[in-house]
Structures are given as C-alpha cells and as structure tokens.
Write a structure and sequence with these properties.
globular; alpha/beta; 2 domains; 261 residues; DNA polymerase, domain 1
C-alpha cells in the first residue's frame, strides 16, 4: 500500500492468480486516499492449448460458482508444479517441491514465480527474470499446461458474478504462443469488457495493434504493471489505466465495489 501511495496511484487493483485470499488483508492495509479494486487473475486455456490470463475485477467474491472455479483452477497447480520439477530434475537441475513451497508466501497460489525463486535460492540462476527467459517460458521443454477453464467460461463467470473482465497481456509474444486477432470475437461475445494494452511484455507494435482492436470492438483500454513483488523487474505503477477508461470499466460492473477507507 505504501508503494502504491508513493507511486501516486489512486485506485489499486489487487488480483492474485486464481485466488481472493488476499482481499481481507488488502482491505485492512488500505490507507486514504487510496482505493481498492479487488479481483483475481484467472488462468485459462483456449481449446487449442494457449495459456490466457483473464483479469476479473469488482465481482462478488461470495458467489459459490466463482469460488468453485478459482478453487479448482488453483488445486491443479500442485500436480502441475510437481511435473515441472520432475522435468527439471531429469536434466540435472536439482530443485524440490519443498524448495518451491518455502519460496511461496503462506496461502499463495503456487506458480512459476515461486519455482523461479526456488531456483534463485538454490544458486542455479541469478534472478527470477532469467528463469522465465531461459527455463520457464511457455515454449520451454519444462513448461507444463494445467487444467483450466476456457477464457470464454472465465469471462462468463466473472460477468455472472457482477464483475468486469479484461484480457491480460494478450499479445505478449515474448512469453510464448499468443492468441490471434480472430480470437477476440468469441471473447467479446462471452462478455469481455476490456483489453490490457499497456504492459511491459508487449512491444510498441503489439500495443498499437491492440489499441486498434480495442477501439474497433468498443473495449475499454487498460494498462497495468503486473507487479509481483521484488522478484520481478516490474515496478508498481509503471503502466496505468487512464482515469476515463477506468470509469468506463467500473460502470460496467453490476454495482459499485471499489473499496475506500
């Protein structure tokens, strides 16, 4: 919260992967004049196996079907992590599930960032970004897909829970395989509200292309730092959503759920 205040942020999105476990702590730590837009970043897979992150904001976290989707998606991450560790071990890269769990904060959704931190702690690599560049990117031999809802199903659930849905970094080609322009039609039909355009993993050309798509489809244009703590180079507030675009997005939720002091 202090970092957000120092960065001049007025509305801070809190969207852990496949979890809303941090919502209560975020509410307790909130300080004026900062406000909170609570949500979750949902891990999804297209029918042809492309990983897509759908950001859900301002939804009703008490909705049973939403919590069930998040729980099921999160539960699949443990067997997936064990498979990735086994692949690394087979190539002589010694890391264990215990190492990963030590690297993950209590209650966190276990994912590649924690595996990267475990590799750093073992002295096998220098930094988390190096792990994603060389070992853990979507096209790596060590990458393992996991069971997950489709992007369309996640969007429909977010909207049914009263929230708004934004596709996160859809053209971040440096991360691996990405969706095509044609994919957006189905996402919009499912209820997509916005497209994350300004993100450090999208080039200037990719951002320009997304801006055109967003305007053609009438989508809200967002920007985000994708801040994951000190383990990544991303700085809190390095990319922002324009106030007018945020107002458009918030207005599409079924009720006002921005948290204020």
């Amino acid at each position: 919260m202090q970092k957000a205040l120092s960065a001049g942020i007025t509305v801070l999105g809190v969207s852990d992967h496949d979890s809303i476990a941090g919502w209560d702590e975020a509410r307790k730590a909130l300080r004026a004049p900062l406000s909170l837009a609570l949500g979750a970043e949902i891990s999804t897979l297209t029918t042809d196996g492309i990983s897509v992150h759908i950001l859900g904001l301002l939804f009703d976290g008490t909705k049973t079907s939403m919590r069930k989707m998040l729980d099921e998606t999160r539960d699949q991450r443990i067997p997936r992590m064990k498979k990735m560790i086994a692949l690394l071990n087979a190539d002589g890269i010694e890391v264990t599930m215990e190492d990963v769990m030590r690297a993950a904060p209590v209650g966190a959704t276990v994912g590649r960032p924690h595996l990267a931190d475990a590799l750093v702690a073992r002295g096998l690599i220098a930094a988390r970004d190096e792990a994603f560049r060389d070992l853990l990117h979507n096209g790596s031999k060590y990458y393992v897909e996991h069971l997950a809802p489709t992007p369309e199903d996640a969007i429909r659930e977010i909207r049914a829970s009263g929230g708004v849905a934004v596709i996160a970094h859809p053209f971040a080609s440096r991360r691996g395989q990405i969706i095509t322009t044609d994919t957006f039609a189905g996402l919009v039909e499912a209820g997509l509200n916005g497209i994350e355009v300004d993100h450090r993993d999208q080039s200037a050309d990719e951002r320009a292309a997304l801006r055109v798509i967003a305007k053609e489809l009438g989508m809200v244009i967002t920007g985000a730092s994708d801040y994951h703590g000190t383990g990544k180079l991303n700085s809190l507030g390095e990319n922002l959503t324009h106030a007018g675009e945020w107002e458009r997005l918030e207005a599409q939720a079924d009720q006002r759920r921005v948290v204020t002091v």
